[in-house]
Automatic annotation (TrEMBL):
<feature type="domain" description="Tectonic-1-3 N-terminal">
    <location>
        <begin position="163"/>
        <end position="201"/>
    </location>
</feature>
<protein>
    <submittedName>
        <fullName>Tectonic family member 2</fullName>
    </submittedName>
</protein>
<dbReference type="GO" id="GO:0036038">
    <property type="term" value="C:MKS complex"/>
</dbReference>
<dbReference type="InterPro" id="IPR040354">
    <property type="entry name" value="TCTN1-3"/>
</dbReference>
<dbReference type="GO" id="GO:0007224">
    <property type="term" value="P:smoothened signaling pathway"/>
</dbReference>
<dbReference type="GO" id="GO:0060271">
    <property type="term" value="P:cilium assembly"/>
</dbReference>
<dbReference type="Pfam" id="PF25752">
    <property type="entry name" value="DUF1619_N"/>
</dbReference>
<dbReference type="GO" id="GO:1904491">
    <property type="term" value="P:protein localization to ciliary transition zone"/>
</dbReference>
<dbReference type="InterPro" id="IPR057724">
    <property type="entry name" value="TCTN1-3_N"/>
</dbReference>
Length: 208
């Protein structure tokens, strides 16, 4: 009875949390539409894989997106203000319009996460197990004025791939009549040909 009551309480708390999260998203969309502003949801993400997704809510007509790599200031210890100046990164940014007031953003890491080997001379691999450790900033701009920003903390580790991945090599299994893989189970009588026993040593000596 106590376990059942605790389970009901946990489900109720979970339902309340989900309802609050959904309500907050609805309120954000309503405020964005009523005040003609845009907001990212969420505004901060931690990326542990090569793909990350966020949403821009509100009237995104005339809004452009810029992506850049940022770092903490040595003097203030914080990240600077959002910028509408595009910078080259190792990520690609794709967008998809959802309805009239939502834009899905998808960032993809566009380099290999393969760990470099001793024979690698190309740069499209990871020299260390921690391949990527950087902070990205996506800014929603109208003209040259930032309206909203999204911060992404990316921590990507190198992946190990087999050296012969995709090889067409196949294991050849010999004909077990002449080359049995294990002990012959039907060879019951020593130096006597057992009937219907294809792997019997006496039988093999007759045909080989």
């Amino acid at each position: 009875y106590v376990d059942s009551m605790m389970a009901n309480v946990a489900n109720a708390i979970l339902s309340v949390n989900i309802s609050r999260h959904a309500l907050s998203i609805v309120l954000l969309i309503y405020l964005a539409n009523s005040q003609d502003i845009v907001v990212f949801q969420p505004t901060f993400l931690v990326a542990s894989g090569p793909t990350v997704t966020s949403y821009l809510l509100g009237n995104n007509s005339g809004v452009s997106l810029t992506l850049r790599k940022v770092s903490l200031s040595n003097t203030t210890g914080s990240i600077g203000s959002p910028s509408c100046v595009e910078e080259a990164t190792r990520w690609t940014l794709a967008t998809e319009q959802i309805g009239k007031t939502a834009l899905r953003l998808t960032l993809r890491f566009n380099q290999s996460l393969r760990l470099c080997t001793e024979n690698d001379t190309i740069g499209d691999c990871c020299p260390k197990p921690l391949c990527v450790l950087e902070t990205l900033q996506v800014s929603a701009c109208v003209g040259s004025t930032p309206q909203a920003s999204l911060l992404i903390q990316a921590s990507l580790y190198a992946q190990l791939f087999p050296t012969n991945a995709g090889s067409d090599n196949q294991t050849v299994i010999p004909n077990q009549v002449y080359q049995p893989l294990g002990v012959c189970p039907c060879d019951l009588t020593h130096r006597v040909c057992d009937v219907r026993c294809c792997c019997d040593e006496v039988m093999l000596s007759v045909f080989l």
